[in-house]
Write a structure and sequence with these properties.
Elements: E1 11-21, E2 26-35, E3 50-54, E4 59-65, E5 78-82, E6 88-92, E7 94-95, E8 100-105, E9 111-118, E10 125-131, E11 142-144, E12 152-154, E13 163-166, H1 181-192, E14 197-201, E15 229-231, E16 236-241, H2 243-258, E17 262-269, H3 282-295, E18 301-307, H4 317-330, E19 337-340, H5 342-347, E20 355-358, H6 364-374, E21 380-384, E22 388-389, H7 403-414, E23 419-424, H8 449-459, E24 466-468, E25 488-491, E26 496-501, E27 508-511, E28 519-526, E29 532-538, E30 542-545, E31 554-561
Parallel strand pairs: 3-10, 13-14, 13-23, 14-17, 17-18, 18-19, 20-21, 21-23, 22-23
Antiparallel strand pairs: 1-2, 2-4, 4-8, 5-6, 5-9, 7-8, 9-10, 11-12, 15-16, 24-25, 25-26, 26-31, 27-30, 28-29, 28-31
């Protein structure tokens, strides 16, 4: 007789006591587990094979088996789901240690999803009833904006202004700890300061530059004693993945989701001394398939095949192409995919969903403008622009370390129509000062600068604006606009003009079409404090504006007040 229970807690379970023979496994027990760390629900005794969940939440269907195949990671079992709109998709299960397999599911539609299992002799059928999302900060997955091919949006149509934070070693925080104290501390600070994407490795081991011996040991995460495979990085057992590692990573991905942060997940990394299996080997394929099966149901995922993919002599374009094909074949949720390597992206733009740039050049703005010209049908992100804000402890040093300059380089990217990212030297890699704002004696990074960048495009949706390449002269035929003689210009084509004005500019000249009312609203925003000064004035074809903040970069907004 079927016995089913729904339990309150981190995991919501329905247990089926049955005797069903699997193709290669004896099914001992079947139950459902729902991973909600923020969503408490009343325990309900259920008399049917149904379960309640919300939009954009991961639900785990769990099998417990008595006997395992020779390699439990290679089992072919799972469930076929049919949505309320009659769309069907096949979700493969992943091995979760012991005798447990999980089918991880999330819903994109309201209503009832029907499922039936495969890989067992007697199919089990049930329903998942999906209601509205109760937490408004949670979003569906990110996609390309169909109205503006160079911009992102959430699948519900809301704009997504991507502002990324590099946190490669996030996997290492709170490893095998009951509470996610370290992860909560840094991710809450990241979110509070405007960042909505974390660039992270599935796994990394060590860095090639010297480690700072003065860093407190609890902030040092290089050379972890564990690996993504059983054993350790020096002696991995490539035949078996480390399930405990991935259970810990689950919690990080879920926490990011709860914080409204996208996980930009780099599946491989070549320059962090990871002992990887041979390319194309069974173990290599098993690893990448496992990552996709385990994390595809999370709405906040973006796939990145590898950090600096073609560097370091590890692989080539055919290998990356094959990995991409493999990911797309296994990912039934169709998450965005990129490769952290502009050399690859420039050669194979059709293979990826957005272009990743790594440009440290001093002429960053014009390089970004030109890249956007080359790929008019895809979003672009400068995932590393050479700005690595300094911290109190020695780490990798980029070309630009001062917080003000790092910020200005982010603005240069954005005002070229390209998304950007931020690095803090004491959090980007092996060293993570996760509680820096709680430590009175540690100098603070200027993460607060970025909340004003994020807020700017909350008011003026980035998706509505286009970057304008400045003309060589006011009358030149080379360039896009006649809107200014200096500064970096964005326009929505509806009478709103935004300019990033570097601190080197003593003033900026605007050259604007006439408004029908003959009036303009002028707003100046300090990019370091968020302070704004605004007024209305009569239209002038040619007008100069100076910064009210001496030797500080700022944003100038000019809005034509039409009748």
């Amino acid at each position: 007789m079927l016995r089913a229970f729904l339990f309150l807690g981190n995991y919501l379970r329905m247990t089926y006591l049955t005797k069903t023979i699997m193709k290669k496994y004896f099914l001992f027990c079947t139950y459902f587990l729902c991973s909600f760390s923020l969503f408490a629900q009343t325990p309900i005794s259920i008399q049917s094979k149904s379960i309640q969940t919300e939009l954009y939440q991961a639900v785990d269907l769990v099998y417990e088996v008595v006997t395992l195949d020779s390699n439990a990671f290679d089992a072919d079992l799972g469930a076929i789901f049919t949505s309320p709109s009659k769309q069907s998709f096949r979700i493969a299960a992943f091995y979760n240690g012991g005798h447990q397999y999980i089918i991880r599911f999330s819903a994109k539609e309201l209503g009832s999803y029907h499922f039936e299992t495969f890989g067992i002799r007697k199919k089990i059928e049930g329903n998942v009833q999906v209601s509205e999302q109760s937490k408004k900060e949670l979003h569906p997955q990110v996609m390309q904006d169909p109205k503006n091919s160079q911009r992102f949006q959430y699948a519900d149509g809301k704009p997504y202004f991507a502002l990324a934070f590099e946190l490669d070693w996030l996997f290492a925080l709170d490893y095998q700890q009951k509470e996610l104290t370290q992860s909560q501390a840094i991710l809450s600070a990241i979110r509070a300061n405007g960042f909505n994407q974390v660039v992270m490795n599935v796994y990394a081991y060590d860095v090639s530059w010297p480690a700072d011996s003065s860093i407190p040991s609890h902030y040092e995460f290089r050379k972890p004693a564990y690996s993504i495979f059983e054993g350790n990085n020096e002696k991995p057992n490539f035949e078996h993945l480390n399930v405990d590692f991935f259970k810990n990573l689950d919690r990080k991905i879920q926490l990011l989701h709860e914080q409204g942060i996208v996980a930009h997940l780099m599946i491989y990394v070549w320059n962090k001394k990871v002992n990887w299996p041979a390319m194309y080997s069974t173990a290599d394929n098993r690893y990448v398939d496992y990552v996709i099966k385990r994390y595809q149901a999370y709405p906040n995922i973006i796939w990145d095949v590898s950090k600096e993919a073609l560097d370091y002599g590890r692989c080539d374009i055919p290998y990356i192409n094959e990995r991409i094909e493999r990911i797309r074949k296994n990912d039934v949720y169709h998450h965005l995919l990129t490769v952290h390597d502009y050399e690859y992206c420039s050669r194979e733009p059709a293979k990826i969903d957005f272009i990743s740039i790594q440009n440290w050049r001093s002429d960053l703005y014009m390089n970004s403008i030109e890249a956007a010209e080359m790929y008019p049908d895809k979003p672009l992100m400068n995932i590393e622009h050479g700005g690595y804000e300094m911290g109190p402890f020695a780490s990798f040093v980029g070309n630009y370390v001062q917080p003000e300059i790092c910020l200005e380089r982010n603005y240069a990217c954005v005002f070229a129509g390209v998304y950007s990212s931020y690095y803090w030297q004491n959090a980007a890699w092996n060293m993570i000062i996760y509680d820096v704002f709680q430590q009175p004696h540690i100098p603070k990074p200027q993460w607060n600068y970025y909340q004003y960048l994020q807020s700017l495009f909350a008011i003026h949706p980035f998706n509505e604006f286009k970057a304008y390449k400045p003309k060589l002269t006011i009358n030149s035929k080379l360039g896009y606009d006649n809107f200014s003689t200096s500064g970096y210009a964005l326009s929505n084509g509806k009478g709103v003009y935004l300019y990033f004005v570097p601190k080197e500019n003593d003033f900026i000249n605007t050259v604007l079409p006439r408004s029908t009312s003959g009036r303009m609203r002028i707003t100046q925003m300090n990019i370091f404090t968020g302070e704004k000064r605004s007024w209305v004035e009569d239209y002038q074809l040619f007008k100069s504006y100076s910064s009210p903040w001496k030797e500080k970069a700022y944003v100038l907004q000019v809005e034509a007040l039409n009748e």
